[in-house]
């Protein structure tokens, strides 16, 4: 499945994914569906390394007008938030998936809201907070430690009343990890897929620009598509991407090769 990223923000790390005007954000969402997106992931707060948090009201002011314009969107909507009030209002406007980078650790009220969503994505984030997460991240065994964290969050969600069919996990590429950490995580994606259905979000992220040096996110399309195909091969259920059309086409070719003569 391909999840298209729509950022209703003025400061996301990839400039071409900033759709601050509600009408432009909604237009982009519908375009992504035309390109083959299975889900649209809407966020109103940038979580790039070093970013500053915003208030609940500011986040609501950014995402609710977009959601109003997406009432007729023919695919599910995911709300990318750590805040219970934002999740609640988004759900009332048809968001059916919660994508929480804090894994229900930021807002104690969010777990109750999470139970009402069809799917809940819980992500690992290293570091104390978003602003400092890339300041010298250290792990003894990155795969083991993230797996342990996600299993603990899974138990927490189930104890709160969550159901197995609701939960997806995300190892958090680029969230408090070095280049080698990210590559090690990607190399062992099947380990995370054993915990719960797996989401991988690596699109345009900085580690790609360290594998082959570039001048910024604008030059990372080929690397992003490569990661998406690798994630599919490693049993990921979903990839979260900025470039829907290119990713969908690449995955279709990959699927045709995987199926061989049985493709048609």
Commentary on this structure:
By secondary structure, the protein is α/β, with parallel strands linked by helices. The chain has a single domain, classed as Alpha-Beta Barrel (TIM Barrel). The chain is built from 10 helices and 8 strands. The chain has an 8-stranded parallel β-sheet with strand order 6-5-4-3-2-1-8-7. Helix 3 links the parallel strand 3 and strand 4. The longest helix has 18 residues. The mean pLDDT is 93.
Describe how the helices and strands are arranged.
Elements: E1 2-7, H1 22-35, E2 39-43, H2 56-69, E3 77-80, H3 84-92, E4 95-100, H4 110-114, E5 119-123, H5 142-159, E6 167-170, H6 179-187, H7 189-193, E7 199-200, H8 208-211, H9 221-233, E8 238-241, H10 244-259
Parallel strand pairs: 1-2, 1-8, 2-3, 3-4, 4-5, 5-6, 7-8
Helix pairs in contact: 1-2, 2-3, 9-10
User: Strand order of the main beta sheet, please?
Assistant: 6-5-4-3-2-1-8-7
CATH topology: TIM Barrel
Instruction: Summarize the biggest pleated sheet.
Output: 8 strands, parallel
SS class = alpha/beta
Low-confidence stretches: none
Number of domains: 1
CATH class equals: Alpha Beta
Q: What would the principal axes of the Cα set say about the shape?
A: globular
Range of strand content: 5-15%
The N- and C-terminal alpha carbons lie at a distance of: 19 Å
The string of secondary-structure elements, in order, is EHEHEHEHEHEHHEHHEH
Return the CATH architecture: Alpha-Beta Barrel
